[in-house]
Hints:
The structure holds 3 protein chains of 3 kinds. By secondary structure, chain A is mostly helical. Chain A has helices spanning 17-20, 22-29, 32-53, 55-58, 94-130, 132-147, 150-162, 168-199, 202-209, 214-226, 230-250, 263-274, 280-307, 331-339; strands spanning 67-68, 71-72. Chain A contains 14 helices and 2 strands. A two-stranded antiparallel ribbon of chain A has the order 1-2. Chain C is mostly helical.
Amino acid sequence: MSTPTTVEPAADPRASLFRRLPVISHFNKSVGLQRGMLVAGLVLTSAFVLTAIFAPLLAPYGYAQLSDADGNFPAQEAPGGKHLLGTTVGGYDVLSRVIWGTQTAIMVIVVAVLMSIFIGVILGLVSGYIGGWLDRILVVIADAIYAFPSLLVAIVMAIVISGGQSSLLGGIMAAAISITVVFIPQYFRVIRSETIRLKAEPFVESAKVVGASNIRIMSRHIYKNATRTLPLIFTLNASEAILTMAGLGFLGFGIEPSSAAEWGFDLKQALADTTSGIWWTGVFPGLAMVLTVVGLTLMGESINDLNDPRLRGRKKAASGKGGPDSGAAGAGIQAEVSSS
Amino acid sequence: MTINIDKHGTGPVLDIDHLKVTFATDAGDVYAVKDVSLEVNPGEVVAIVGESGSGKTVTAKTILGLLPETAISSGAVLINGNNVISVSAAKLRQIRGRDVAMVFQEPSTALNPVFTVGWQIAEGIRAHAQGKGGKVSAREAKSRAIEALRKVGIPDPENRVDYYPHQFSGGQKQRVVIAAALALNPGLIVADEPTTALDVTVQAEILQLLRDLRDTYGTSIVLITHNMGVVADLADRVVVMYQGDVVEEATAKVLFAEPKQEYTRKLLAAVPHLGRNSASEGMTTRAHQGGKVLVEAKGLTIEYPGRLGTPAFKAVDGVSFTLSEGEVFGLVGESGSGKTTIGRAIAGLNRTTGGSLKVLDYEMLNLKERTFKPLRKEIGFVFQDPAASFNPQLTIGDCVAEPLIIHSNPTPAQARKRVGELLESVQLPASYADRFPHELSGGQRQRASLARALILNPKLLIADEPTSALDVSVQAVVLELFKDIQAEFGFAALFISHDLAVVDILSHWVGVLYKGKLVEQGLGTQVMGAPQHDYTRRLIASLPVPDPDEQAKRREANRALLAR
Amino acid sequence: MTTLIEAPPTDADGLLPSKKKSSGGGLGQYILIRFLLIFPTIFILVTLVFFLMRITGDPITAAMGGRLPPEQLAERITAAGYDRPILVQYFEYLGHLATGNFGTTLSDNRQVTEMLATYGSATLELTINALLVALLVGIPLGMVAAYRRDHAPDAVLRVFAIVCYGTPVFFAGMLLKLTFAVWLGWLPVAGRAKTSSELELTSLQSPTGIYWLDAIRSGNMAALGDVMAHAVLPAVALGLLTAGIFLRLVRTNVIGTLGRDYVEAGRSRGVSEFRLVTKHAYKPALIPIITVMGLQIAVMLGGAVLTETTFEWKGLGFQLATYLTARDFVAVQGIVVLLAVIVAVTNFIVDIVAALIDPRVRY
Lengths: 340, 564, 363
């Protein structure tokens, strides 16, 4: 009979490298609304990345600039004229700070996510594969941190690292490390459970039977198969990193406005403005944040759906007339058909 | 008891006319069913047989309109004058359950774990209440559910109706699924591999139940199966499908006696038939004795520790046997018998917990991986599921070469050469070394798996259900290959299977496991021909043979034995 | 075919008795062990927080360093015992926690426990309100999305969900404030109630501290209306964040169970699609949904800190932000530990509820 397809390779390993790249291969697999969501996510995310790269060209002023040749910037000036999106209570140009903010965001994302992937993957692999007491202790610790409000963990870490605000590099590192601590348990859990699942797969057992060493099994057989879902977690966590950093900034654990532009800090400053109806100081950095997060999440979720055969929509067969009934029926049929 | 069949006469309950089903997949359109026409008359059991990809399951789902949105169907599927393919969704809902019902392959997944079985049966009854004007009261629905459970032989249905699925055994669950299908007395039941997930002794009971239903209530049955023994046991008429087309259609008697088409003949020839083609044919004593004993189990016990508070589970209980050089030992048993556990223990994948197990003179109790590792090159292992036993990221060549690389550190050219040799001896082209596992078919993968197990020329091979995931025709080829290679390489083998007939084809010596105990061992011909232990007798009596006449006789002869 | 794995697979996270096992000690034992697991969780968090907060130095220096002359600072450090070995302090701290003593705040010299009691109810009220919004919005919409999956309503709802949890709660709060309080003037800008109703409600005998409950109990309809008006925006801001997560959670899990054989079996018996979604697929999906919802309590508490700051909702989160600004780490530590206890206990309750729904555990 049709055997359940246990491991569906992410992409044909021999297809051209370009077509195997995570996002490209997903694009080719997608249809209809799912493709729409993926494309929307891609557009927003690329806009975010490009803005960060070309911030020096795009921003009319520096992030800490308070005056130009014509003298000091006015405070709380409404959008229009020289300051397209207005100025803040401190006299910063809102547009410039929104644009420069992308750089800070991207730096924190990259540092935080890379660090947490690196540590989380190693811990997850070792813990899941070796098992025993090491595993149990790590699981209890990871679960304790995971269940705890991530913002509070980040606050505690921010206190530990910097005792509060600091310079650009210090601030970014503080935010990044705080976020890293929040994320490690997530990567740890994902990789560990994948490792445990793979450990029981016949292909790992068959390596064990022929006498492969633990290191060989972990590196050659488990690592690559366990880390297939990482691009997905990366995009989802990138958006969470932005939110956590903004939360820290909002509570006053961000980066000094003179060191870098940071959306959370700007929103904190703008909070007092709202009661007097001054909306532009808060709305624009907030929108920048929402668009970035939504872009990254759309991309991540689309990838997730496309990776999961149960959630993936498929093109209809040639003549376009639907089957008699809706619903997710017939996963078994799909399996039988595709295995034939 | 009214049956909802065609009220106008004795026309067919089901009439499929030029059915065509197309699926959209990532790889483009797949024509799952190309052109199928068939009829089912009242009270008739029609079997649709075929291997994977034949379109038999798709045909079955079409009868109930259960195809996913990605499928396009054309032609006609007439049930009581309604064309299932073109009726409205509301009409289709009326037909389902009332005119035609379905029995699923896997009873443990076909029942909702969080609702009582009574509720699930009543759901179908309630769904059809509106059509008759007015609702069915909860009490009435329940009493009808109890009635349905009684019909399928669930003891104490008044209480069992409030049980949850996990409180039933596998066979009872399948009875519940059948009861749910019977709740509205449909004229037609579509049974999709109804016994495939069950042990052979349970299978015999379910087949008997289906036969009784037909005899008592005149229910027509469409039986979807790949198992020729089941067909011979139950079907009146047989439709053979291959790659979406009907190849042959005949009454069961005629089909088994005089298959007309080449494909049908090949298919029937590939089916293992208990008592034919036995490896121990003509032997009177155990072969290969006097050679070195490779595996020796004495009072072997393997326990799985219980979770906190639950007692330990004894998977293997005081088993003793020997396996000598060059011998093929067949270990047969149903699920939970401990056969796989023994195989895994010999390969050092499971720890033993009591008694003694010596593998190549190494005591496996208190196994130390470091000291056992050198012996691993003498042991090959073939896993059940060929799809899962290869790392999807590596090529077949890399996978097959792995034991060689670990134990003898060859140059890439040497490894490649040896892999090529091995692939050729399992009748695969050497060029397949560059392919990825998913590019091979199931049978090809299992051959590659054999090549990997044999690349170091081991003294001992453990094969755990190596053919049970394969189609019958592929199984026959792999079994033949296995037999030839064993003769050529001369390794000793422990061959583990749930299928008596398969074990008999390969094994010189056969052991029967039941609930962790080795209840009987002997020459294959002896065990199959004159079983001593009660359980072995029941096991053999339960196994349907692919011949309707012979099977009918066996069924009669064994009625008393199976009734227990 | 018949047997894939015949032995029970060895399970590495075997700390809990298997939820799937029907035999053995059953539910009572599961609850007991799950209850005992609360303590290591709290212990680990308390320990981590204690040592992490001390790596950077003692709380007095953090709060008053630079503002006091060095001799005075040293004096106060000695008086508070922060110059002793850290392990001694740690065990003393554990002993204090065990007796319910969370210490005294540095900035305003209050008992942390007293502060927790005063402000805890406000946070509880906000969380309950937000949870109601989240459940009422998230679950039905999640089912609609699952039912109409891959069609327009599904796409709209998914984008809605992403926007919900992609919007920082303080930005959502800010937008709501701008629109409904500042521009439209329909609802109050901040706070929990008008001063007058606040006075009435706090002067009640044995108040619960949850204003709308107190207002209902005392039959004070004017105060109830006022409290409700104040509650709407914070509850919506925090509730929508969680509603987005719930929507996605319900959608994914219901789609998962919709693909199962037992739903197809129901379909084959003529059960309507609506009922398949709302009954046959939803109830089995509920078990993972509830477990994950439990974890969202933590997200809500984190969000509560930000929401309270945005709306000047005088609860634990608002206090936390105030103490953070004042660098009063004794108070911060107290609040963090209390929240850890709340999270651990909620997760315990949620796991038990999930187990109760699952008949495989119940019987």
